[in-house]
Amino acid sequence: MARAGLTADRLAAAAAELADEVGFEKVSLSALARHFGVKDASLYSHVRNLQDLRTRVALLAGGEMIDRIAAAVAGRAGKDALAAFADAYREYALQHPGRYAATQIRIDQALVADSPAMRRTAEITYGMLRAYGLEEPDLTDAVRLLRSTFHGYCALESTGAFGAPRDVRESWERAVDALHVALANWPRSEHGGRSHPRRHADH
After folding, report:
1. Model pLDDT for residues 97-146, shown as the tens digit of each residue
2. pTM of the predicted model, to two decimals?
3. Residues 47, 48, 54, 59, CA torsion sign
4. Which is nearest to 184 in space by CA: 138, 122, 125?
5. H-helix or E-strand containing 34?
6. Do the Cβ atoms of 53 and 27 come closer than 8 Å?
7. Which positions ≥6 away from 169 have C-beta within 8 Å?
8. Residue 116, preceding bond cis, omega within 30 degrees?
9. Is 111 in contact with 59 (CB distance < 8 Å)?
10. Helices 8-22 and 50-73, interaxial angle, to 10°?
11. 189 pLDDT exceeds 80?
12. Which of these, 62, 89, 61, 57, lies nearest to 73 by C-alpha position?
């Protein structure tokens, strides 16, 4: 019998909090059951298994993250939008390491398609990049460039891997400047991709 008060959403929220405290990989159904003072079996009335729980945390965190990004980029375009997007991304990743780790797992594409948060993430990200005059397949290439740069930087910063005396925030800002230059001067794709290479100034 399901324990009164427990729901899939409540379990996902508690798992997200636990992930920030101990690390996403250490989140388990047993740990969550202990948190609520119930037996492991009580959770299976609400989530199918650990993968289901982790997917729910990923979708929850993805929604939180894109809400921050959307608020940051509202009314901005070009370099201003890119910088606001990047800063909101970095802030969330550093403030919520467990939740952020959840956003990096691979999710079934059917669930992605059904998730308003994931659709909104794609709309905002691709919309920002279309302002640079990019079209497919260059759009996808540019998304991958941003994601790998942002993720790599945040992952290294969070572990204290940057040992040089240069301020990490200043290096981050320079990296975003460099990404803007790369997007503004994106090489023409052999498959059509981008046209009008200089139509997207900072305004």
Report:
1. 999 999 999 988 888 888 898 899 999 999 999 999 999 999 999 999 99
2. 0.88
3. negative
4. 138
5. helix 29-36
6. yes
7. none
8. no
9. yes
10. 80
11. no
12. 89
